[in-house]
Amino acid sequence: MENVHILTQRVSGRGDFLPFSAEHSPTNEITETHKLVTELQTSLVIEDVLAIYAKFTKQLLNFSGLQFQSTLGTTQTSQSDTNSTPYIFDLAIGKEHLGQLIYFSKFPLGQAIEKKLHTLHTALVYPLRNAMMYSRVLKLATKDALTGLNNRSQFNDFLLQKLENCRRYQRPFSLMLLDLDNFKQVNDNFGHKIGDDTLKEFSKVLCSSIRGTDSVFRFGGDEFALLIEDPEFTTNKVIAERIMCLVRKSPLMSKYKVTTSIGFTLANSQDSETEIFARADKGLYKAKASGRNCAKAY
């Protein structure tokens, strides 16, 4: 028996080793890898792909957290503990670098485990790349390329959902429309680079002025919208004042004398998307007619 070698894995919490039984034969490993590939192909969402992979890999390695870092950002499995030692693997398909897969484990990875992980990575990379491509396409379809905000298409979807919730669950909300005063002169006199910088600065102002339950959108040009969860005029006034204050304090926007005009209205259960938008637009018109750089309700 002294010539028998057993592949072992350290098990968290017990401090001993778990032997892989005969079921982990090469033939069975191929079957299991094929099963993993099949499961990974059931979703085009990066978070789901990573979760499926993590669940499968947990049978091999008792890691405390799993992370994937790429140009799209960082994705990690739920309840990941990233305080343990990180073990980093580059994922690539040919010369195409996808990102880094990071396992967090309290115990060192042996050569046998690393070899097995490399095999599993070959099953992961193609579904993961497909999910990344889908994420990029989805972002192009729903995000404004310049500012990264939700676009008009997303606004239409969000507004319809808000109206449905308002009718079914009595969850009213408000719509705020905004545009920039003197923005055309910035483009005409200083060029589109300064204009783009101004739009990006205003986008940051809007994002820092709302709460997690609110949403911000760019329609195009200097036209923006907010969907605000709290259905009170006082809430809208607070948010509007916060926005105008930050615009005044912005060195860039102050330098080019750019301000903002704002119109807002409250939704009711009888509203259509056309009706609520028309009211908010009338509020914006009132703000323009009142000398700009102000907020008006309708």
TrEMBL record:
Isomerase recorded as keyword: no
Cofactor: Mg(2+)
InterPro entries the record matches: Diguanylate_Cyclase (IPR050469), GGDEF_dom (IPR000160), Nucleotide_cyclase (IPR029787), Rev_trsase/Diguanyl_cyclase (IPR043128)
Domain GGDEF: 171-298
Keyword Nucleotidyltransferase carried by entry: yes
Keywords attached to this entry: Nucleotidyltransferase, Transferase
Enzyme Commission code(s) on record: 2.7.7.65
A single MF term (Gene Ontology): diguanylate cyclase activity
CDD domains: GGDEF
Alphabetical list of PROSITE patterns matching this protein: GGDEF
Protein name stated in the entry: diguanylate cyclase
Source species of the chain: Pseudoalteromonas arctica
